[in-house]
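User: Fold this; tokens only.

Assistant: Input:
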Amino acid sequence: MSEHSSTSQQKGPSKHGLSWIYFAIAFTFVAGTAYAIFYHGFLGATNATTYRESVGMSVVAVTEDFIPERTPQAIANGAASYKTCAACHGANLEGLACPNLADNEWLHFKEPKETNLAKLIKGGVPAGATKGPKGGAMPPMGTLDNMTKVWEVIYYLQTKNPNIIKDSVPTKK
């Protein structure tokens, strides 16, 4: 037997040399797809929630000592106080320089609860905390002397946007 017939020598690139590259590409694709399905599907994460988590605004903890009663007078007072908010949020809550308050899309929390709104209004929104064309900063509005006005505005907003969940429990002074 000759040497040529007993051993076959291959010239050019090895077929096994490229297989690890194909494996790495396939593994990356499968792992990325599984991550996206789990993270966005099961955890319900969106770009907005991911951004909120990155700036530390994912959890809204309410620590209100006093919540006034929801009365027609409180709602009327809220309508009057909202005029200062209308410069940015619009007279009909449509959103001018700041987000729309009449829809069901909320940038800083998942559920549009009254208590979440109170915390947000009280603390404000720092510059750069909200992306998008209508994501400007909002100064903190809640101090001890005007938290009643904040709640009155929230009660007014809830009458204009039924998507806001009533979860406040009025307290006695």
